Amino acid sequence: MSCLVVPSQEGSKAPGPVPGPLWPVGSLGVAIGVSWGMSSASMEIQLRHAEMHIHKPAEPATATVVKNEACTAGKKAAGFVRHIELDLSGTGLAGKCIPGQSLGILAPGVDGNGRPHKPRLYSLASPTRGEDGHGAVHALTVKRLIDENPADNSLFLGVASNYLCGLGVGSKVQVSGPSGKRFVLPVDAGAHDFVFIATGTGIAPFRGMLMDLFAGGYKGEITLIMGSPYATDLLYDGQLAQLAQEHANFHYRTAISREANAPHGKMYVQDRLAAEWPVLESQFASGRALVYICGIAGMELGVFQQLARALGPGVLEQYLELDPEAAGNIDGWTRAMIHRQVRPTRRVFLEVYA
Ligand code: NAP
Q1: Considering the domain 181-353 in this protein, what is its CATH number?
Q2: DSSP per residue over 269-280, as a string?
Q3: From atom 26 of ligand 1, which residue's Cα is the shortest distance away?
Q4: 322 near 332, Cβ under 8 Å?
């Protein structure tokens, strides 16, 4: 089976002994490998193997909704977000999906041009073993897109999100995928610490990854920073708090952006990253830390600025490659500079959407 090798940069301080893979060796995937500087050995981050495009949109699988429930923390949450479980039994997708991948949802009907709706991608929220223990039932985390058209004040409803959120148990759904092979966990997960940073429904892949890591006996450190407008809108909050209680090496931290009276005051995920820095610093300095970022695209700028401010020479370049003009003016960075003058290395995994 082929492997994906992603160019990576390991720090000059080598990580400690590398435990064996948490995943079956037969499931090894892409390796991301990059030489790390003149003075240090070349290291690779080998990612788990991810099967791709088993069902193309032209030949979708038919899944059955087996659960559809709100997953917001409070009954009066500002947004409507639902945990929707799909039974993929009997399709090519059963047992083939891993956290960090997405499924395509084909909503019925046609678009404004009379063509069938294009698939909308949703991240899997389940672990590899699925919700059923056999990899046949996988969950999506879906927020209803409800907006107003500024041109004429008419109501705009997202096609796929409102379709999915309105489905009852037993409904059939056309599904394509899986897609995505670069936002998955590494094969040698035990050799790394993980900093997971999510905003809103960007939490989805981390729910599954956490379950996979703990099912595999992971012993490193995991920090999850979850950004939400209100405490009522935190997703899977009870499950994540429970996991943190069960695993002393899992640190669940929230960043609530619109509540001045939240325990920590209003903050964004990058502010929480700064607040956690005394604990996280050694994980970065040791070369063990991998950063996974999922959610709204705007968070990249603030998170990268915080990394650039906090990481010293010799460590920063393991995570961000900066053009000289960017290196001298971190506070002046703009979103347009991200991926141009400020480039994340392969130790930073991104799944962000505008
Ligand atoms: P949300 O509930 O609105 O929460 C987003 C949080 O991020 C808010 O607290 C928001 O603060 C904050 N935020 C806004 N701008 C920020 C910035 N520049 N830096 C840091 N934090 C910032 O989120 P959502 O509506 O669920 O959106 C989540 C995003 O994830 C969407 O773009 C979605 O496409 C994407 N996504 C979804 C999935 C999925 O499977 N459903 C998977 C991956 C990614 P304020 O609003 O208070 O400013």
Answers
A1: 3.40.50.80
A2: HHHHHHHTHHHH
A3: 200
A4: no
- 18 pLDDT more than 70: no
Look at residue 62 and tell me whether its pLDDT is greater than 90.
Answer: yes
Domain spans of the chain, in order of start: 181-353
Ligand 1 geometric centre to CA of 201 (Å): 7
Structure tokens at 270: 């990058």
- Nearest Cα residue to 209 out of 201, 218, 45: 218
Q: Cite the DSSP H helix spans in the chain.
A: 159-165, 204-215, 237-246, 269-275, 277-285, 299-310, 316-319, 324-327
- Of 163, 348, 164, 184, the closest CA to residue 273 belongs to 348
How many angstroms does the Cα of residue 35 sit away from the middle of ligand 1? 34
Gap between the Cα atoms of 275 and 266, Å rounded: 13
CA 297 to ligand 1 center in whole angstroms: 8
pLDDT at residue number 158: 96
Q: What is the mean pLDDT of residues 320-336?
A: 96
For residue 35, pLDDT over 80 is answered with no
CB 280 within 8 A of CB 223: yes
Structure tokens, 235: 């997703």
Q: Which two tokens stand for residue 178?
A: 């899986």
Stated length of the chain = 354
How far is 284 from 315, CA to CA, in rounded Å? Answer: 7
Please tell me whether the overall predicted TM-score, pTM, comes out greater than 0.85 for this model. yes
Residue with tokens 């892949």: 205
Chain segment 134-161, per-residue pLDDT in tens: 999 999 999 999 999 999 999 999 999 9
Q: How far apart are CA 98 and CA 242, in angstroms?
A: 22
Is there a contact between 91 and 61 (Cβ–Cβ < 8 Å)? yes
**Given ligand 1 and candidates 103, 124, 199, which is best to mutate, with the most ligand atoms within 8 Å of its CB?**
199
> Residue 68 belongs to what H/E stretch?
strand 61-70
Crossing angle for the helix pair 277-285 and 299-310, to the nearest 10 degrees: 70
Residue pair 104/177 in contact (Cβ under 8 Å)? The answer is yes
* For ligand 1, atom 30: residue with the closest CA: 295
Ligand 1: residue of 147, 184, 201 to mutate (most ligand atoms within 8 A of CB) is: 201
Ligand 1 centre distance from Cα of residue 230 (Å): 12
